[in-house]
Amino acid sequence: MYTPVITGTGVFTPENTISNAELVKAFNAYADKFNAENAADIDAGTLDAKPHSSEEFIFKASGIESRYVIDKEGILNPDVMHPLLEQRGDDQPSLMAEMGLDAARKALKAAGKTAADVGAVICAASNMERAYPAVAIEIQQLLGVEGFAFDMNVACSSATFGIQAAADMVKSGSISSALVVNPEICSAHLEWRDRDCHFIFGDVATATLIEREEDASGAYFEIKSTRCATDFSNNIRNNNGFLRRSRPDGVADRRDMQFMQNGRKVFKEVLPMVSAHIGQHMEDEGVQASDLKRLWLHQANKSMNDFIGKKLLGRTPEAGEQPNILQDYANTSSAGSIIAFSKYSDDLKDGDVGLICSFGAGYSVGSVIVKRHS
Ligand code: COA
Known about the structure:
By secondary structure, the chain is an alpha+beta fold. It contains eleven helices and 13 strands. It has a domain at 223-373: Thiolase/Chalcone synthase (Peroxisomal Thiolase, Chain A, domain 1, 3-Layer(aba) Sandwich), CATH 3.40.47.10. The chain has helices at 20-37, 39-44, 55-62, 73-76, 95-111, 135-143, 158-172, 263-284, 302-313, 326-329, 336-343, and strands spanning 4-12, 16-19, 66-69, 120-124, 148-152, 177-185, 203-212, 220-230, 236-237, 260-261, 292-297, 353-360, 364-373. 46% of the residues are buried. The chain binds coenzyme A.
């Protein structure tokens, strides 16, 4: 048995940002246009007018102030309201592979390693650009990694589930190292014309290198223990599968093929599930709340994180104990907790213990207890 450790992480951040002010301005222009074009139906009471979105609501309900996106122009054009992503040829790298490659190279650099040191690539994300060939195999080829690669999808929990899969393989000795890559093009499965959710997501890619402890060439995080759980729910759903092309009446129903959620129910049901999951994981591993130096939580909503942090620590977390990045990145699905971990972990001291946790659609929750060695 080998001890799996995290030796490097990397984050690819797109160049474009959209502030809440820009987002709301575009949405309201779209709503005004929709209302003007449909004035007769709205006046007749057969169609609801679209109400305006508000910056105050978005910040208060979510804590999000801005988001990074691959394409800003299409999203902010009231006549388009979705990213305009170029259709690439089959012989060009796919967008997910390109984003994942950048994050993977950064993770390798952080670990002081090259592609020759990697035994497997797992591309774990909430949406795949295509079903096959696996995006992970494309990243493997672009990096020049030998061995094998595969895709996995556990929505927002993809990164922690991927880390568990990689850590277990490293532990057993079937591989000596793996890159877990999380390219999330959330902007393409978000309905930017839906006021209830148009502010939720952003784009990003993260990567985590997991190796055997004896192969680490610098400071690292020992993976003490991982724990994954799922419980089926329709409250967060995306029907963009290959069987879903149109409604029974033949009308294309894009809305059903994008991100759908019952946010209030998610809030109510996921919070107890996550708190109980982490609490049990810590108890089983003999980790006390006072042992935890840092929590790197899934980045969907500030109130959710505040609640979980308080519940776990038994007090309001101090600044820095539970870093949030969602104010700058919004919800980036599986990548969120890894962005927080990547940006806010170098300062931990030898022996410090922390916990990475992601949760979301499925429902799914994954937690990783790590210990710093420096
Ligand atoms: N601007 C202004 N008002 C808005 C609005 C917007 N953009 N969006 C919704 N509202 C209104 C609603 O219409 C509603 O009005 P009403 O009270 O008159 O009916 C009111 O604000 C409250 O809406 P609600 O959807 O209940 O807000 P909320 O407090 O639940 O916050 C979320 C919404 C999505 C931020 C929150 O539910 C959440 O974060 N849920 C969990 C999300 C999550 O983790 N999902 C996982 C995704 S992977």
